[in-house]
Amino acid sequence: KRLVVLVSGSGTNLQALLDAIDETGAEAYGAEIVAVGADRDDIEGLARAERAGVPTFVRKVKDYGTREEWDAALAEAVAAHEPDLVVSAGFMKIVGKEFLARFGGRFVNTHPALLPSFPGAHGVRDALAYGAKVTGCTVHFVDDGVDTGPIIAQGVVEVRDEDDESALHERIKEVERRLLVEVVGLLARNGYRIEGRKVVIQ
Ligand code: GRF
Known about the structure:
The protein is of the alpha/beta class. Helix content is 39%, strand content 24%. Strands 3-2-1-4-5-6-7 form a seven-stranded mixed β-sheet, sandwiched between helices. Strands 8-9 form a two-stranded antiparallel ribbon.
């Protein structure tokens, strides 16, 4: 299967996928990363892709007259690589109708909280501020809401009294990277069906 991975930052989730495919081999893993896309330049995520010899592309919102034009351009850039599955690994933009029309049902996101709790761009900070005793990460299909699509898998992480946002986020990311590698491999190798809010992996 062909994967396109979208990033906006350090790309450690992308790196986990790159390493897993490198270690197990694309055949055995069931997928190869054919391109990495971003909404901004100069991020470690793009450098990680380049080091792995994976083609990259950048589509910045500010380069387009409207949000819809950006969304269509991003969809075009992704479609050019003919992906079977698109993975948002720390991609910090909300895609629009055009993108979902083309990739809905095969667009997966990883979120650093136990959805439906703490959706949005500050899931780690919000869980900490709320005083949650456990939080975690969620891998889900992207739908037309924000972090509201059908849940595929979740991992639980305890919150410690001494945690600040970055310490907690780092501990979540240890679980998240493993979960994402496992889920993407399963979806790629086994195939799946989405039935309402349920995801059935064959
Ligand atoms: C991940 O925790 C992701 O869930 C969140 O931002 C983080 C991205 O980390 N949206 P990285 O860029 O993969 O290191």
